[in-house]
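Q: Start with the shorter request: fold the first protein.
A: Done. Sequence, then structure:
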Amino acid sequence: MTETKSAYGTVLLKANQILIAIAVNQASSLSEISQDADITMSTTSKILETLQQINYVIKDEQHKTYTIGPAFLKFNDAFLQEFSIVNLCRPYLSKLRDKFGETVHLGGLENDELVYLDKFSGKKSITVMTSRVGLRAPLYATGMGKAILSTFTKKQLNNYLANHELVALTPTTITDPQILNTQLAEARKNQLTHDDSERDDDVFCIAATICNDRQLLGAFSISIPKYRLDETAKQEMETAILTTKNAIEKRLKA
């Protein structure tokens, strides 16, 4: 474990290692916790005593084992209230918009629909788009929606298709379930989906999901007028989207 010059910082870092040993690595006895945290048993014992006093750790006196205490509960609700996928993603998606000058969206899943959570308007002119924060759209007809659908289990997808008619919104909207399934299989392989003017005429979207430990949190996309899109730009955007996806998901694990 890396030491710091600050005694206070060192103690906090050691306490953190001890809590990780108990909560994440399921160490329970003093020797197990000491070994997992790579801290001497004497120091581990002293830190555990302090953590007990402030209810971060509970000691089972009979079995001489330790578990995480109730003190963390008071922070749980506060964290859930303050945590927002919108706030977390904003610096990454704003940077993505600035890189290409095109419109970037963030979306989420609600009641089998895509809901627009955030929008970063492009710095270049774009054909008419119906997107705005709070708007809902069908999953099958949008890039973000198809990215979300690609995370569905076979049962979930079958239920979705059984309960949602694939209505054409533009001449290129996918209305054939077999074609949609083929696109979703490609999306699972490449981690990218495309919307070729399927909801808005003459607008091409490239999208990807945001997940944490396989749990879907949302999706994001770049939208560009088709007249401004060529194969080079498409490949550059796809690479940037995957880089952004990896950065956001890495931040979620930090």
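Q: Next, the second protein, separately.
A: Sequence, then structure:
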Amino acid sequence: MRFAFTEQQTEFRDAVRQVLTKECTPDDLRAAFDAPAARTDRWTTLAEMGVVGLTVPEPQGGLGLDLLDLVPLLEEAGRSALPEPLIETTALAAPLLAAFPSGPAVDWLERIAIGVVTAAVGPVEVISGSAGSTGGEATVPAAVGADLYILSSASGVHAVPSADVTVTPVASLDPTRRLGTIDWEPTTTTLIASGEESREELVRLADRASVATAAELLGLADRMISIAAAYAKERNQFGKPIGSFQAVKHLLAGARVKLEFARPAVYGAAWSLGQVDLAGSPSGSRGASLAKAYASDAATEAARVSLQVHGAIGYTWECDLHLYLKRAWALAESWGSSADHRSRILASLVVELHQTQA
């Protein structure tokens, strides 16, 4: 089977790239560092394009598409280090709410589609075997300024409005992620799923989070390699650009190879999660973990190489590289590090082997 994105998907990706190139420049990112915000004019523009409501069902005003359609756009978001919570709102909250389209979920979906709601998603520790937190305090990204919080407790999955939570900002290496500690109490009015149904949906959510984060990491890795390659053409040593030296070429080529190996893993995992028989299954979860592990490794390698090519100037505020380094380091650990996901794959294979032998 030959896999490729459709013409419509690539045109949508190119349109998003064009917008973000203009509206999410390094200067815009520096401004977001100084004054991080959940909803901005840029978020409104993305909503008008249909990006924010891409995974919202058509009856609620969205495009009714899936993660495979979103992945190229998330890659562009990563390439620009988009400060707004596209993963949390569009990749995670909207599909989860769409799985339970009744009561308050419908209203939330309609508001997400028109760009007046951003979401934060609480910890879902399915990687370590837990169904989630039990209420109380949880530190999550995109928490400060969010309108909706998707949180889990012993009773199930909750959609909690901002009025029902207390958020304490937490300092972060990348302030545009708007980390916050959430204090909340589960109630029956916020419960949208319980029992085995909620457990299955949390597994799907964690898998989507892994693949969505991996997609952003692809874009970040690509951007950092491009920045480093451009710098290597400009910086001279011994009378010639450092990019002409074989050692520098090998560094950049090695990072590019890791990126190109990670891409099909991420695309394949996104496709798998869109298949009814694979979503939430052990093989689907393994694909999601493989994607996250490969993308995390590719991004951290791109960060290491890019910083090595730049030298100490790469850390400075004036150099654009640090804007992407910080996001890459944060996302490489978000929703499980590469080591976490490799352990998850191994555990899944061991369980499957024992079941086969039984």
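Q: Describe the second briefly.
A: The CA atoms of residues 233 and 244 lie 8 Å apart. The longest helix spans residues 195-234.
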